[in-house]
Structure prediction request, 292 residues.
Amino acid sequence: MATKIIWDNLYNDLPTHIAVALRTARLKPEQIIAKEDGELMAIEGIKEEDVNTIRTIYNTDSVTTPTIKEEVKGKDTNKEVTEAKKAVKKVIVPHKRGTKYQAMAKLVKKEELYPVKEAVAILVKLAKSTKLKTVELHLNTRETGLRGELKLPHSTGKDIKIAVFTDDLATKIAAGILDFDMLLCTPSDMPKIARFAKVLGPKGLMPNPKSGTVTEHPEERSKQLASGGTLPYKTEAKFPIIHLNLGPITQKSEDLIDNINEALRSINVTKIKSAYISCTHTPSIKLSISNI
Prediction:
């Protein structure tokens, strides 16, 4: 039986405004640890300095679990040890950012709103210090349930593995082989795919007419999406947050700027509370979107 979470008991080790924001977003500690900085800053009420505060206490590199010694004797040993293990809490040791990250953070003014062009220029400098250089756009929206498709003026340069549903593919899915990023099908295929909903749904791979992945002409649709200028988007299931990967920072800055501006316009800036760009493992840069 699942343990009920008492949210008011969580995050008492953080400043009040941060604790309230995390509780309101209904994020568990393990979810916080798994999220990127930009994702945390997309939560209403969380600023960049707040992310640093959160990381000091909640960081994946600093989680350790005490060892349970099975010293209980008698027939109830297994039961008592099991109960003891349930009672063990993870001990989280404070963990500071590395010197490389701190050096990058000095190049970004925490409270400043940067025009897209200036933000991209800064991001190019920051990315020189990282190995993984995928550009990420994080949006904090005013509501959940937003979804659609972006028609970007330039390719994102990102290869998307697109699969079209067939009986052979159904056999692979049944075997747990999901070697694709997007699945297309025809309306008549939907009854066959329905039995895989529990497998495909949690991974965001279930075809849906609203996202354009259910179509009478999946092969043509596949070619269109593979060109790189078409990008589906949607908010997270429970949170008003949209994450978009816009390809490598090595693409032309002018193309990246055009793609970011078009993404913001297409989703509609009136539906966006705040927007950030970052590269993998870099600080996020908050965008000025009022004039877009």
